[in-house]
Q: What sequence folds into this?
């Protein structure tokens, strides 16, 4: 079983600040995922990474496979970025994809 | 519109009364999964499936059953619900690309067992 640790648990930022959320895991993985859960409860997949770096708009995700560590960065944060961000790791099995999740980082961006 | 649809969205039931939460996707995805989300514990995988008639246990399968008779549907069955199964449940699906691919989540089902 993989242990997935996220930090910080809670984060408050002023609008415009650069934000970093960290994720570390204990066992080698097939892929790492960053998810966003809105206050209403819906979950959206932001990134899936197996190596390197991905960028989508103001969001950037990086992964270091050797260090077993990933970061999610938000540039020029905005109040609409307020949500819970969840790191997950997955393993490709013969029967499907097995997932383990961090407990999430609750982000509040203040105008 | 590409989506994963769960029903019902909210359900209150009594201990021991069998129930089924349905999940359907319209994207022709091979992979489907069920998760539960609890305060302080986060999301945990219950069951997952690679395709029709191929399912496997996730992290917390006790007290749950699933079936995958059609590619688009992946119902979650609680044969004898208990109060510790009170939780927020999510279904998700993804395409069987090279390795892992992005997951699409349903809206969630909030289940209360009294």
A:
């Amino acid at each position: 079983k993989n242990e997935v640790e996220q930090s910080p648990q809670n984060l408050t930022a002023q609008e415009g600040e650069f934000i970093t959320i960290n994720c570390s895991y204990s066992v080698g993985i097939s892929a790492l995922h960053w998810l966003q859960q809105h206050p209403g409860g819906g979950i959206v997949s932001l990134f899936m990474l197996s190596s390197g770096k991905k960028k989508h708009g103001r969001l950037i995700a990086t992964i270091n496979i050797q260090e077993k560590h990933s970061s999610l960065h938000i540039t020029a944060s905005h109040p609409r970025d307020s949500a819970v961000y969840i790191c997950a790791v997955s393993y490709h099995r013969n029967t499907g994809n097995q997932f383990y999740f961090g407990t999430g980082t609750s982000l509040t961006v203040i105008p | 519109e590409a989506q994963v649809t769960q029903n019902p969205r909210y359900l209150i039931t009594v201990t021991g009364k069998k129930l089924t939460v349905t999940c359907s996707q319209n994207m022709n995805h091979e992979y489907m999964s069920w998760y539960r989300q609890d305060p302080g514990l986060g999301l945990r995988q219950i069951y997952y499936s690679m395709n029709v008639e191929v399912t496997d246990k996730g992290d917390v399968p006790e007290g749950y059953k699933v079936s995958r008779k059609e590619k688009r549907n992946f119902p979650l069955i609680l044969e004898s619900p208990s109060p510790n199964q009170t939780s927020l449940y999510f279904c998700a699906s993804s395409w069987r690309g090279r390795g892992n691919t992005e997951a699409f989540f349903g809206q969630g089902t909030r289940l209360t067992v009294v």
Observations:
- The mean pLDDT of chain B is 94.
